[in-house]
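Below is a filled-in request sheet from our internal design queue. Each sheet records the structural input a requester submitted and the sequence that came back. We keep these sheets so that new team members can see what a complete request looks like end to end.

REQUESTER: design group, bay 2
PRIORITY: normal
MODE: inverse folding
CHAIN LENGTH: 314
BACKBONE (tokenized):
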């Protein structure tokens, strides 16, 4: 099979709507079979793609994000941001962006951010007469900030594949993430001003909350401030630990899981041991999807190297 046919096959699969991960994997396998290369290379390359210690950060950060979303940390970050800017024009949209930035700095994952914050904010925005499509667009635009603001799963992947210092990537990610978040907030404000979207003093109907959480909305006390500090402690521990040389980015993911588990179970008490199997299963499925993409991309990159395509382009 020629290089042109290989790329043509890849293009056709994408055009007909085959998922990208399957496209790059399937086209690579067909190429290997057509070229008469030993089929064992498929298994070797797929396994080698995920057999990297640093990639352990991915399932742990996804698990940490799920634990924080179910354990009350995400909800308390929303309440904090809402108290600051929630009653202004477009307040709920701005709150969604701010919290997505905070949660991105905790989970390192755009998918985890969208799942955790979208489930809290979108129903509240719709109840406050925000357009449903606009509400979804705000979350869809803000959640990918998790790719930029440390600790970023994508930074870990890029650092592993290219040998770049992950700590240096983290340093570059902070200003870029804040600039992007500021641009999104300005856009959300201008759109909200045009269509008359308002803020909200309270976050009613935004989450399936316990009675204690509902009561807390009506009386923001010193106890709530302490709870917010527990929630804000997560990014400081993760990022501060990496920059301070206390632990590696991979180890920081484990620390995030332990911290989220302890806070959810024993501080906020919104997690129970019965909840854990379902959370673990959900996180495992999310991590498996990402690892599947990485494995197939590794096989695709091997075919590219075999055909010396990078050298030809250069």
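RETURNED SEQUENCE:
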């Amino acid at each position: 099979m020629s290089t042109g046919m290989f790329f043509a096959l890849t293009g056709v699969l994408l055009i007909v709507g085959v998922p990208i991960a399957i496209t790059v994997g399937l086209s690579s396998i067909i190429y290997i079979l057509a070229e008469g290369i030993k089929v064992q290379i498929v298994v070797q390359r797929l396994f080698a793609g995920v057999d990297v210690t640093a990639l352990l950060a991915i399932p742990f950060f996804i698990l940490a994000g799920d634990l924080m979303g179910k354990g009350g940390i995400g909800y308390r970050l929303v309440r904090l941001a809402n108290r600051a800017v929630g009653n202004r024009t477009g307040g709920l949209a701005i709150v969604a962006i701010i919290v997505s930035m905070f949660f991105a700095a905790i989970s390192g994952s755009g998918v985890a951010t969208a799942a955790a914050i979208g489930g809290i904010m979108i129903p509240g925005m719709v109840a406050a007469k925000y357009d449903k499509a606009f509400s979804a667009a705000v979350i869809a635009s803000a959640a990918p900030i998790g790719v930029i603001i440390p600790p970023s799963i994508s930074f870990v992947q890029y650092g592993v594949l290219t040998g770049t210092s992950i700590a240096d990537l983290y340093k570059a990610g902070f200003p870029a993430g804040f600039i992007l978040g500021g641009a999104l907030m300005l856009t959300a404000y201008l759109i909200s001003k045009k269509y008359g979207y308002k803020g909200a003093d309270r976050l009613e109907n935004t989450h399936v909350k316990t009675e204690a959480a509902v009561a807390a909305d009506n009386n923001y006390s010193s106890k709530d401030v302490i709870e917010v500090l527990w929630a804000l402690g997560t990014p400081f521990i993760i990022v501060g630990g990496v920059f301070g040389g206390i632990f590696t980015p991979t180890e920081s993911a484990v620390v995030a899981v332990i911290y989220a588990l302890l806070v959810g179970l024993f501080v906020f008490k919104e997690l129970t041991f019965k909840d854990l199997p379902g959370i673990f299963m959900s996180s495992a499925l999310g991590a498996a999807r990402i690892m599947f993409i990485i494995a197939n991309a590794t096989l695709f990159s091997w075919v590219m190297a075999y055909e010396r395509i990078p050298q030809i382009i250069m």
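SHEET NOTES:
- The chain has two domains: 3-52+293-313, 53-271.
- Residues 53-271 form one domain.
FILED BY: M.R.
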